[in-house]
Amino acid sequence: MIRAAALALVLGLGAGQGLAEVPEPPGYRMDEYRGPVPETLAGATVIDPEQAHALWQAGGAVFVDVMPRAPKPPNLPDGTIWRDPPRLSIPGAIWLPNVGYGEIAEVTHGYFRDGLDRATGGDLARPLVFFCLDECWMSWNAAKRALEYGHARVYWFPEGTDGWTFLALPLERAAPEPGEPGAQ
């Protein structure tokens, strides 16, 4: 019996039983940004790693990494040199850290809008692909926000760099786009 149950799990029999579908919230996700995400985002196209790779290979779409920047620990001893952990991202992507929180300051809205405007040349119809990590609400929030800013072709890639690396696709070290609020 245990073997049959284990085999059923491995083969995916009964998949979805006991797993609740995550609904889209009416607004932004405000906390617990790592966890199961919805399968949809109203107004956006949800893509999987293969589709993201096809868009990347075709060119034309702007890939937008919204992974938040790791905060500097508050209790470092005097004289300690802080180095930001490296962010490995999809080659050619722009990195706009901290724009995927549920509530962002007006200066962060400006940074986000300016970054998207520079990357698209002001073309609201240029495709944008938003990503972070697998099961990260930051990309969902950022894609939703871009739709509210008037961008017409928004793609949400919920598996992010985790899904990208699962396909053994390349990553490169990313640097935040200039003008990041609070950057030192």
From TrEMBL:
InterPro entries: PQQ_CXXCW, Rhodanese-like_dom, Rhodanese-like_dom_sf
Keyword Signal: yes
Signal sequence residues: 1-20
UniProtKB keywords: Signal
SUPFAM superfamilies, alphabetized: Rhodanese/Cell cycle control phosphatase
Location of the Rhodanese domain: 90-173
Ranges that cross the membrane: none
Name the UniProt record assigns to this protein: PQQ-dependent catabolism-associated CXXCW motif protein
